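REVIEWER CHECKLIST
Item 1: Sequence provided? yes
Item 2: Single chain? yes
Item 3: Sequence as submitted:
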Amino acid sequence: MARSLIIVESPAKTKTLKSILGADYRIEASMGHVRDLPKSALGVEVEHDFAPKYVAIPERKEILKKLKAAAEQADVVYLASDPDREGEAIAWHLEQALELKSAKRIQFNEITRTAVLRSLEEPRTVNMDLVNAQQGRRVLDRLVGYKLSPLLWRKVKRNLSAGRVQSVAVRMICDREREILAFVPEEYWNITAKLTPLDRLDPFEARLIQKNGEKAGLHNQEEADNVLSDLKNAEYSVKKIARREQRRNAAAPFITSTLQQEASRKLGFSARRTMTVAQQLYEGLDMGEEGTSGLITYMRTDSTRVAAEAVDEARKFIETTYGRDYLPDNPNIYKKKGAQDAHEAIRPTSVMRRPEMVSKYLDATQLKLYRLIWQRFLASQMKPAVFDVVTIDVAAAGCLFRATGSTAKFPGFMAVYSEGKDDQKLADEERPPLPVVSEGETLRLIQITPEQKFTEPPPRYTEATLVKTLEENGIGRPSTYATIISTIQDRGYVVLEEKKFSPTELGLAVTDLLVSGFPDIMDVKFTATIETKLDSIEEGRLDWVKLLADFYPPFEQSLGKAMEQMERVRIAPKETDEVCPNCGRKMVIRESRFGQFLGCSGYPECKTTMKMSKKLNVKCPVCKEGEVVEKQSRKGRIFYGCDRYPECSFVSWDKPTDKQCPTCGSVLSERRWKNRPIGLKCISPDCDYQESYSRKKDETEEEQAVA
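Item 4: Structure as written out by the authors:
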């Protein structure tokens, strides 16, 4: 019989740890949190130091019973939940619920033999500073969500929710949308000359930058035509050639936010999907004869620090595989301001596991993300890329044109990996090379092109840019970004169309109401300040009860004032292009308890209604011609079908996605339970492939704050 018990959070970890430790240890999973604030009540003693009233989570009662029996049979109990605030809180809740007197807390940043054995040699007690930081966040989110949601029910409509972080994220999207709507484009013109040396055809393009020694700001066609008139029959000659060497350094190894951003840019993954797959890679996969092993380090981190042994391994690999020229004299060290340095950056547990070596053990999605993490980490320890950048200034009739080109001199880290970016403008080192010319040389004009342009509004947020902005403003923490993005969509406050967020009428209305009544809570700087104070609690420099005592009284006062004085918000139905088949008036989007539907704008004179068909931008998996649309049954249940019905009879209760089955190449659909996505499965009846989402603890903060 095993004399020592290790309690982890997920079943996947138990398999990996059993592969490492064998039969000397009994390993059980708590399935995440085992206690929480009650769902049906506030659960916080606001009059008595904000003491939380924790209760056993109903779905965990049998698990607790099993864990208690196992603990009674063990000589030593190790609490091995994840190495962060939530993990520390889970360990503390287990200690309390199981009435453990001398439990040992262990943690590991990677689930490898070395890391696990080291943690068993260095156990500690539960860190109450970490626990209190989590309690402070949990109680604060409960107070905001539980108190604000009834206000929204009374002033807007039922079943809405607010959250300390989610509502600020929605505000950012609303503010950006209003910037776009208020933006007034300004006209400007570019003039580009296509030139070539006289003795050969080697064309390049140069853009007008100056006119008579001043910046060439062309605001309309008349100004552009005047310049073109001056350039008619002009002689073009090389005025100046400038050469410089430009170095581009490798990006730091991934932290949670940059992993989510890059997976969105390069792989098209949502933040939730990225974290789900990263969780699988961290917790461990069956590697054949090697057994079950974790492939990456812990994926919830904002630190770019890397363990010395991992750096040494990477440097040896680089020297052996790419040569000494690619290896910097000293290891590259990355520092991130304000990072919590409890654990490392996200990296492979062993750089020796090349993606091609592990590909047969991973599904297509896991392999893509693992390759991205592996490449990024390896590149982070390589020399910079070096480019020769050439700038040519061309003079003609008082005008100055400029062309920039580059030639790769040394690929450096780019031999392995190059970071994606949100701005598609080319950097100097990314421009094609220019022909060899000399100063004073006369050039032949092939073509001169005037181009009308207009200034553009700020772009809508993508998942990548939203995560980046949340991080830059100190809103939320790495573990919460995926949940924030999912929650604000699930609540109907924003929609993601063509990979860009825009607010709904509901989102705009709720945001305006909250901003007017609770300007502090909806303020970006205030939210960031709360995060800083939570960090101070974690570091033992601030009492979590004081944080709540400072926050709650003014919040409660604002809440009472809002309940009494705020007018009810009525959201005008949104007009569509659909025409009422009975009276010819426009159809508008209305809502019922079963969801949205189309109703005639002439109501109550015309009571025509129609079911809405929402396109998913997914090709029909059966006919390959139509698009999948979301529909509603007579009882209000959502289902999916082809928009070519009745020509195509495809129908499914599961939501088809744009993801391909790694087994047969067909479409993967999203399985749901209680209106929550729980995994993917192949839509083909001849294929049994499926995968499950891992509902992790990072989903608890904002979601459970809502009453």
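Item 5: Key structural point noted by reviewer: The radius of gyration is 30 Å.
Item 6: Recommendation: ____
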